Structure formats: C-alpha cells, structure tokens
Amino acid sequence: MIRCENIFKSFDETEVLKDISIVFESGKNNLIIGKSGAGKTVLLKILVGLLNPTSGKIWYDGHDFTSLNHKELQKLRNEVGMLFQGSALFDSMTVEENIRFPMDMFTKKTKKEKKNRVNYCLERVNLEGINDQFPSEISGGMQKRVGIARSIVMEPNYLFCDEPNSGLDPKTSIVIDELISNITYDDNITTIINTHDMNSVLEIGDNINLLHNGKLAWQGTKSEVLKSQSEELVDFIFASPFLKKLRGQAIDEL
Ligand SMILES: Nc1ncnc2c1ncn2[C@@H]1O[C@H](COP(=O)(O)OP(=O)(O)OP(=O)(O)O)[C@@H](O)[C@H]1O
C-alpha cells in the first residue's frame, strides 16, 4: 500500500497539485486519470521520488518515504517496478538482455538464476522463446509486453505504469491491461497506473482517482463510473456527444 497525504506541488508561482490525499491499495489496479495537464505525471513522479513535493507526506507500507536514509531508499527502489510510456527498451540489446538489465545492475544472481527468471517473466507475458530477438524485430504490443516482463523481473511490491496503452490499438490495449491486472492480483502488487484510456478505466479500474486542475475531483471504482454525477468525470470519460448519449441510454436501461 502507498499512501500520500496533503500533497502540494508548485513550480515557481504556479500550483499544479493541490492537497492530494490518496490511498493506493495493494493487490489493486489504482488508476490516476485526468485531462492533459491535470497533474498526473507530476503526481506519479512525486510518488516514485523523482520530484519532491512542496509539502505533504508519502508512506510506502508504513515507511515514511520522505524521511528514508540513502540505504533505506535504495532498498525500497529495488521493490519498485516501472513500466515507461513507449516501453523504453534498449534497441541495441536483445529481449533477454533488456529484461535481465535490472538484475545485472542490482543483484548478484548467477547467470543460470537470471536466465530462469527471464524465462519465467517472458512466460508471464506470453512471449516464451523470443529471448534473442531485438526490439526492432517485434511489434509495439510485444515491446510493451517485454517492458512489463522487465518491470516485474525484480519481483516488485510496487508497480508504476505511465500510460501503458499509449500508441496501441484497442484490442492490444486490453491484452496489456489484462496482463498488468493479472500480475497485480497474483503477486499482490500495489499498482499505480497513469492513463487516459477509457477502456482501462472501465475494465481494470479498481480504484480510480480523477485529477482536475491539480485537485482530486472524484474517486471511485469502475462500477461506480456509469452512475456518477460528477461533472468532471462524465466530461472526461464520456468526452464526445455520442458517448454522452450512449451513457444516457445505458443508465435508462439499468
Ligand atoms: N518541471 C516543470 N516545471 C514547470 N511546470 C511543470 C513541470 N512539470 C509539469 N509542469 C506543469 O504541471 C502541470 C501538470 O503537468 P503534468 O505533466 O503532470 O500533466 P498530465 O496530467 O500528466 O498531462 P499529460 O496527460 O498531457 O501527460 C502542467 O501545467 C505542466 O505544464
């Protein structure tokens, strides 16, 4: 579980996060959604420690993140997996080398142990046997799955996903969502996903947090989305007149 309390963030005179308090539960898909510029990326960066909040507190399972010493912080970083926008694979490395990279950097595992772990992670994302291929030789969806395999290679307790579906077609997006979701449930990971994707919200949104102009505008679950009267939520999820009409019809049929 990750908890943030009363997070404020300003750049110069501009306040971009205003009093954000959220509990991100373990074993759940915790979504941060909102329009472009709402503050999602800034919040995600604060949660992983890439940016300092102007004020506020963050706890990782009871550990006060803002007051950890260097050694404690390093230990915690090894428990964090990151899935970056656009996969961020190294083009010059094979799939296996990409997935192995965090273990090469941060562990003393033997070659055999690393190989076994790479193979296990490839199996988890249904990509057995592509160890020796290069990122340029596989599709965008497969690259994303390799990115997921790399993000879980260190057996993280916390998984951060920044726009995991960007650039993917709706069907492939669903495959990616299901993978992230299954891994989250199976391994009881605290997963935080920054997304614009309406399908993700409705498919895997266990805890949804809507940011609007730097404020927490709505919280709820995927099953609460349809009936919510929150103007900001309806405007974000059902953005077009056509979707608003469909929403109206769906509510009438409930
Ligand atoms: N380093 C920075 N310096 C100054 N302003 C910043 C900085 N980083 C972000 N901002 C501002 O903070 C606000 C929130 O930005 P953020 O990137 O978090 O939005 P977002 O919700 O992630 O948008 P998108 O969906 O487009 O990525 C924006 O107004 C942005 O210009």
TrEMBL record:
Protein keywords: ATP-binding, Nucleotide-binding, Transport
Ranges of residues in domain ABC transporter: 2-238
Gene3D superfamilies attached to this UniProt entry: P-loop containing nucleotide triphosphate hydrolases
One of the record's GO molecular function terms: ATP binding
UniProt keyword Secreted present: no
Domain of life, source organism: Bacteria
Protein name, per record: ATP-binding cassette domain-containing protein
Organism, scientific name: Membranihabitans marinus
Source taxonomy: Bacteria, Pseudomonadati, Bacteroidota, Saprospiria, Saprospirales
